[in-house]
From TrEMBL:
It comes from the Eukaryota. This is Telomerase Cajal body protein 1. Residues 404-428 are annotated as: Disordered. It comes from Eruca vesicaria subsp. sativa. InterPro entries: SWT21/TCAB1_mRNA_Telomere, WD40/YVTN_repeat-like_dom_sf, WD40_repeat_dom_sf, WD40_rpt. Pfam families: WD40 (PF00400).
Length: 428
């Protein structure tokens, strides 16, 4: 569908934005006990065409009905959560030879997928809202229909030579009416209802060379509608901007590698950043962003791979994977390690909490290299275990007590004592 294709049905006023916040009571999950695996997927990601195919990340839909995964073969796979949800296999399952079930939808992109995101008000009960955006190498931003797999429309950016340039990161603003995309030293903003080549462009590098330079690889909006946007750069910086006019508020320095993931705390007062070849997730206080509050360790010091972390809906705990195949849980009020469990035998590159249920999803995999051997063709094929290059769903045990309102709303307490992973004072 070309630029004339409509992203939304204009006669209905566009994508429907719900008024007010969802009223939900999140279950209090136990993190001192390892969760149990309820579903597992691996074989469908391994094809004869590309036996070395591996997962690159996954994200739950905002309504929690399904999740979307991205893999090295330029394919996005959509899996719906079964009717019984987390109750399936309540005693846990061993790693099976066969997948729990197949993907409901496959979207094949022409080139490597850089980033993807869900429309923030997506609801499976309203097909008009069931869309997600992707950005791929040498292609414009695509808006896909998650119900049919059809391309709704494209959003195209052009460089100085009037050639299409691809975004490296993409995200919807909290109101769901604009698409923000990160490029090389610039942000472009598209109106969701006006597909095509109309956009606003904002340079992140000022004339005095201050600001953010390099590839803008990740972005995130504050969940409290404060109008703040965080942008991570391969230049090892994270920038905080105003959403309405892209005014640069401040730049955070401290990541050892290029920033690959940024995420705000649930109350919007803290920002968490992670980078490639950097073993620490850094916590920044948005009210006094001159120093790091604490660092959270993960095994990512030897990989350029993007490793996604996530914060539970209550805002109290953060989960992250790493090269060791472990998922680590941290208490965000103290910065202390809480627990960890083995999720895969290779790199866990994404961990994502379900938005409403006591569940999480993990994806794993990394690129493997073989040495060609003319004498033994079997050595040229990658031999994978069942818990490598895979997706797993996990259910957490629940606590008998209800969490306090501070835990549900703030993550970090205003007067909490912060420690880094070594147990030393918070000054790092």
């Amino acid at each position: 569908m070309g630029e004339e294709g409509e992203a939304v049905a204009e006669g209905n006023g566009g994508l429907i934005v719900e008024s007010g916040e969802r009223n939900s009571t999140w279950p209090a999950m136990r993190f001192d006990v390892s969760p149990y695996r309820t579903h597992h997927f691996s074989k469908q990601f391994r094809t004869s065409r590309n036996p070395n195919n591996f997962l690159k990340g996954l994200k739950w839909s905002p309504d929690g009905s399904c999740f979307l995964s991205s893999s090295e073969d330029n394919t996005l796979s959509l899996f719906y959560l079964p009717q019984d949800g987390e109750e399936s296999n309540s005693n846990g399952v061993t790693i099976p030879e066969e997948d729990s079930y197949g993907a409901s939808l496959l979207v094949n992109e022409g080139e490597s997928v850089y980033d993807f995101c869900w429309y923030p008000y997506m609801s499976v009960s309203d097909p008009l809202t069931c869309v997600f955006a992707t950005t791929t190498r040498d292609h414009p931003i695509h808006l896909w229909d998650s119900s049919s797999g059809e391309l709704r429309c494209t959003y195209r950016a052009y460089d100085a030579m009037d050639e299409i340039t691809a975004a490296f990161s993409v995200g919807f603003n909290p109101h769901g009416n604009k698409i923000f995309a990160g490029y090389n030293s610039s942000i472009r903003v598209f109106d969701l209802h006006r597909p095509g080549r109309d956009f606003g462009q904002y340079s992140t590098l000022q004339k005095n060379k201050e600001g953010q330079a390099g590839i803008l690889s990740t972005l995130a909006f504050s969940p409290t509608n404060s109008g703040m946007l965080a942008v991570g750069s391969y230049g090892q910086t994270s920038g905080i901007y105003r959403e309405d006019n892209m005014e640069l508020l401040y730049v955070l320095h401290g990541q050892e590698g290029g920033v690959t993931h940024v995420q705000f705390s649930k109350d919007g007062n803290y920002l968490y950043t992670g980078g490639r070849k950097d073993p620490y997730i850094l916590c920044w206080d948005m009210r006094k962003s001159v120093e790091i509050v604490y660092k959270l360790y993960r095994a990512t010091e030897n990989t350029n791979q993007r490793v996604f972390f996530d914060i539970e809906p209550c805002g109290r705990h953060l989960g992250t994977g790493g090269q060791d195949g472990l998922v680590h849980m941290y208490d965000l009020q103290t910065g202390n390690w809480v627990s960890g469990y083995q999720a895969a035998s290779d790199t866990v590159n994404a961990f994502s909490f379900h938005p409403y249920l006591p569940m999480a999803a993990t994806s794993s995999g990394h690129r493997r290299f073989t040495i060609p051997d003319d004498d033994d063709e079997d050595k040229n094929h990658v031999q994978l275990k069942a818990d490598e290059n895979c997706v797993s769903l996990w259910s957490f045990y629940l606590t008998p007590e209800e969490s306090t309102s501070d835990e549900h709303n703030n993550g970090l307490g205003a007067n909490s004592h912060h420690q880094n992973i070594t147990g030393e004072d918070k000054n790092v």
